[in-house]
Automatic annotation (TrEMBL), chain A:
Pfam families: Aldedh. Belongs to the aldehyde dehydrogenase family. This is Aldehyde dehydrogenase family protein. Residues 29-475 form the Aldehyde dehydrogenase domain. Gene3D superfamilies: Aldehyde Dehydrogenase, Chain A, domain 1 (3.40.605.10), Aldehyde Dehydrogenase, Chain A, domain 2 (3.40.309.10). It comes from Nocardioides bigeumensis. It comes from the Bacteria.
Amino acid sequence: MTFEYAPAPESRGIVDLKSSYGLFVNGEFVDGSGTSFKTISPATEEVLAEVAEASDADVDAAVKAARRAYTRVWSRMPGKERAKYLYRIARIIQERGRELAVLESLDNGKPIKESRDVDIPIVAAHFFYYAGWADKLEYAGFGNDPKPLGVAGQIIPWNFPLLMLAWKIAPALAAGNTVVLKPAETTPLTALLFAEICQQADLPPGVVNIVTGAGATGQALVEHPDVDKVAFTGSTAVGRMIAKTVAGTDKKVTLELGGKAANIVFDDAAVDQAVEGIVTGIFFNQGHVCCAGSRLLVQESIADELLERLKRRMATLRVGDPLDKNTDVGAINSREQLERIRELAGIGDQEGAERWSAPCELPDKGFWFPPTVFTGVSQAHRIAREEIFGPVLSVLTFRTPHEAVEKANNTPYGLSAGVWTEKGSRILWTANQLRAGVVWANTFNKFDPTSPFGGYKESGYGREGGRHGLEAYLKEGGLK
Amino acid sequence: MTTTVHPSAAGSTAFSDVTSSDASLRRFLHGLPGVDQVGCEARAAALGTRSIKTTAKDYAIDLAIRMVDLTTLEGQDTAGKVRALANKAMRPDPADPTCPPTAAVCVYPDMVPVAKATLGSSGVHVAAVATAFPSGRAALDIKLADTQDAVEAGADEIDMVIDRGAFLSGHYLQVFEEIVAVREACARKNGEDAHLKVIFETGELQTYDNVRRASWLAMMAGAHFIKTSTGKVQPAATLPVTLIMLEAVRDFREQTGQMVGVKPAGGIKTTKDAIKYLVMVNETCGPDWLDPDWFRFGASTLLNDLLMQRTKMRDGRYSGPDYFTLD
């Protein structure tokens, strides 16, 4: 007899799903004038709710509300008063943590253990952290009287819906800006629940506005003449379009885009922990992570042994129902993304790389892809160059530290990287050579509100998180 | 499991080069991959978040009961106490005949005859701590005599302690040879031998690197089981330490085909804790180790919590501690 874990589903009873959701403008839910769309659970394809689409006129109304709140209330409010709202929001997020986690897993497909133990706690931590800055901005290093920018238009992706909202809204509000935020069309629900939380916290109307919709809504927001700042997280292709759109305007921009991170394992690494780090690096959140360690660079002398250990470990990953507390890998967020992963994996096969997938039973309904590793990959393979944004790892080998760094940097991206070695001096040397915004040593995918995050090259510009993250929402002020 | 054998006596011949000198043994042990403390503890904590419910919990509780080495190791132990403990081991829940017995009772060597007489042919083993337990601070001949006494008195299993002083001063060969000698002292005249568990006292070895080295040292010397702690030193068993030892037995089997058991001991008090260990065994070594022959809990208070949870699973409610025996 073997130890079969019985199903341990988190109850979805805690979530009060409405059949339809409007836009959140000026502190109230209003109907959208676009064509409403459905958001589904990617694990079951069940329709969760009907969501309004914001038209150009709706976006304009939201920006106007944000402008009014900015000039009349929020920019005039002392920092210590703004902080109180942010602290209140942070506490409500903690109190309603389970509700937010369940809703996030339902709408996004990520395992409940991640939304519960990673996403939501870091969301709350971001609000707490930036609440602390609100009355201390003159000590942040941007002059002794830094000013907010005005109205921020923010567009976030579907991979960490509420976390990306927190990364955008918390620093913007702390610095005295008001926001119009557009969540991704496949994952709007936690942003709309956040809107309820803003009401619960008595946040002044118009400080936070949420407009739902797809690309056209986002474009209307980016193009709106009264938006002072555009913050975007998403694909490099869309990031490019945004950069073109705002070129020649006064709008400030931060872009957090794609990545193809190298996770470098040297032959003296703590091997069992390195295997864990590789797994966390690429299979966390189904690999839907811009900083995922999607290229494993392993020293040739230990490659065979490491891969054997990695496959053994991958075979223990539990793929399935996102709401089951024992699920390690959940559903792919959308059919479109699943097709993209399948297409790139197919190209890996065609180009002669060797595919191995963990033996696991995938559910009949919904969007699923098994944890997969490609070996025999070289820099010339497309799966070593293009972001797959799924649970697919490409394995390359190297012989010397110089070769490792050369291969790691040989990419148009530069968001993150990992280094695994027991030798401290090699960690420092390697980290200095790597052109990546974040370098993790003997760990991977660790996030903290105090730590700035952002990319080099085509991975974007600007930093989010930490003191650096305030810079994106402040202009330097002179003497008082 | 039938194809898998315990390590052979007098050390595994596969490692005869390694164990030929202090220098080569040190090179080997220090050449083992390092352990990253943060990563190891994070993995152990992550495994601890598994949610084990209903049928899985039923299975885990009965398995955990069958893995308990029910232990009394006190200066105040008497024949009466040991007899009571042995009875409890055979019938942990007198109200429920379907409740399985524990794996063994664990006592000091002088109590082996008492335990043996009570347990008879019940199948519950008698384990005896030997080699100047718990400190291990005695001459080798005394340790060997201690072991032989216990074996002759009928002990099925010997729980020895390593010489932590020798280990920490880098005298690995001395530790190795001592384990080999004790293993030889476990031999019975009829050609069988008592199974040897080697206790590291991980709370004194302190680092995970040391735990990994001690694990390989003991396995190469022919240990049937490797065991975390005496229970007399804090911290005793922890999940990360046990994880390192499970990885060691897993890797040792990959290299040699020989299986070695693991026994965390001390500080495991609740069903919840025990289940975390079983999850760790399952996901680190696989189902082959989910058997009392290959995994044990050294514990005393754990058993009653397992029994209470077992009863709750059946009745749907908790009964008070007075419904469970206090031996």
